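Hi V.,

You were right to ask for the full record rather than a summary. Here it is.
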Amino acid sequence: MTFEPVPDAGGPPGRERPVVSEQPVVQMSDITITFPGVKALSDVSFRLFPGEVHALMGENGAGKSTLIKALTGVYTVDSGTITVGGRVVSFSGPAQAQAAGIATVYQEVNLVTNLTVAENIMLGREPRRLGMIAWRKMRKHTREVLRKLHLDIDPGSLLGSHSIAIQQLVAIGRAIDINAQVLVLDEPTSSLDVREVQELFRVIRTVRDQGVAVLFVSHFLDQVYEISDRITVLRNGEQVGEYLVGNLPRLQLISRMIGRDLADLEALEAGTRRDAQERAEGDQPFLAADQLGKTGSIQPYDLTIYPGEVIGLAGLLGSGRTELARLLYGADRPDKGSTTVEGAPLKIRSPRTALDHKIAFASENRRAEGLIADLSVRANIVLAMQAEKGWLRQIPAKTQDELADKYIKALDIRPANPDLLVGNLSGGNQQKVLLARWLLTQPKLLILDEPTRGIDVGAKAQIQKLVAGLSDEGMAVVYISAELEEVLRLSHRIAVLRDRRKVAEIVNEGTTVNEIMGVIAEEAEVSA
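Predicted structure:
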């Protein structure tokens, strides 16, 4: 394993930072955790110092979540030691970890949305007078907690009335109020826009400068390099090394995460995007939307999609990308316009109608609208095919096994065990299971909404390569991603959305991110 010395400034050159303690607040040494059939962690060591932001990096399945769960008492280690504040600990659950000063804020905020901000911050520790909750005192205390974080939030407002970003900041406020020494942030920015990310980072810096150690997990490399002082890389359940941010260029980080040379990664990401102009004149579009729209959702739009074509949807969060796709799939019913599929008029009023006409949709919310966590990988893969056949005509067990094995191998789903509960897989492998389900229905149009959100570099490159290959084989794809570089890499044409309205359609012939951003911001004109 590789450790770098702790610098006096605690970060890369040019960043003003307080002096970091020479003694780590958390020291995990030679941690090993084994599950049935798989060694999740093998002799992994990790250290976390007061007053620093330490990023934990690795592909999905590398062991990041397992290491965090070992630290917070969710998992018991098979071997190795965990030291917190100089004392060897063995937590039997998250409550003990929290009592020892370790607080965790997850991607899905674990607070009570139908309670007020003040009630959430002081949940279980409410001040009382004569046996009754002292509401005024609780709100006053909450204001003071929020003031320390420079947050102007009404303590009496319902938590659920605020954005996910504000809810995460409230969770951080709660952590600070219980005197946390360690703050674990697990994918805190995956659902935030640029402004919300910057507000979160401001609070993280405030907490860090108060001496709290922050463990930061994210798949967004730009964010990792913006906020972090140190990086630990895991791969296949083993520690690759620990590095100062200033000493680890991004390309080297990616190479260490995936265990391949950069040239191999670039070849994998490049794919084989077919030139849109290869489509012969007079080809019949697979689907054509004519002034399709829904009041209160998205303004009427035109969109033509040809076989073998990747149409990218670009726009800021809330611009209407998902709303456009849901109308195409029938997840929402349009109240304006019409649709033709393979030249024939078709009212797509439900997802079943879409599936019957070989249109598949993979939602961005794979947990709530895609996968069933308590079913096996095999059951999730064959789910759409079984629904298409009807539940009275069960797919034979042997056929299910053959199909699951085929797609597990084709998409490199790890672990390669069809009997595992899909909820126990990493995010990237869950996304592959969802793709396998829809590919099994042999769609002619595949709509992918944020298919690479929250997954690692290696899995992202594999999915991009898959999309390029499907396009080459003649499948039409609608591709939605907040990462414009990804949209440009894969798309033949790009529909740009702003304020729930399609504002431009661009043929991708060397189009740049700046040109797309110009259209979104109304600062430039790019013609199709």
